[in-house]
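Take a record.
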Amino acid sequence: MHYSSSHPVTLPLLRLKLLLVPLSLLSTMLVGGLSLAPHSAIANSVAVNAKLSSSQVRELRSLGIEILVPTDIGRDFRVVKLDLSRDSRFGPGYDILYKNSQNVCFTMSSTKGGIGGPAFEFSRQVKNERLGATSILFGDAVVNAPRKPSDKELDRTYTTLYTAWIRPIGQTSGNFYSFASFVNPKLGCQSSVTPRRAIGYFQSIRSL
């Protein structure tokens, strides 16, 4: 906006104009190039990017726990199954199954206990801003310590792939979370995602 020198705008007048702006509008104004978007708008963006419907969001939030979901998964994946758990022993949890048109599948899961899994041939450290650092495990089941995969091995698909269960940064109790991809004919899952793609999906996990 331009003001002529013959009609200067005083600082008190500018303050008054700002006070008259509705708070709902101020929350989305640009300040220093950063958008102060309200939390509800951010949460809605996470839900859209995670391919969750409004009813699925309500179901997940009804669990009363933090809901973590991948938000950069490409256009072709969609949610085909949502399982909620209110186990008396292990508490509330969820499993979200994603599948694409090529029947490639992966899940995002949370539980408070009963976790574990076999050792696999390969282990690669991955990091997420909410969950911190953990390992992505894949390959054949082994009894020896896993080894670091080569670049070529990161671009293959495997029967099973998952991240070691982990709690969000700073939490010493509550739910664990894990990303997994696998082959399961009963679910129509004919292939897993490659470890390289899984790393990207894990890095995109955000709180709903």
Helices lie at 11-19, 23-26, 39-49, 54-61, 151-154, 195-203. The mean pLDDT is 84. The longest strand covers residues 78-87.
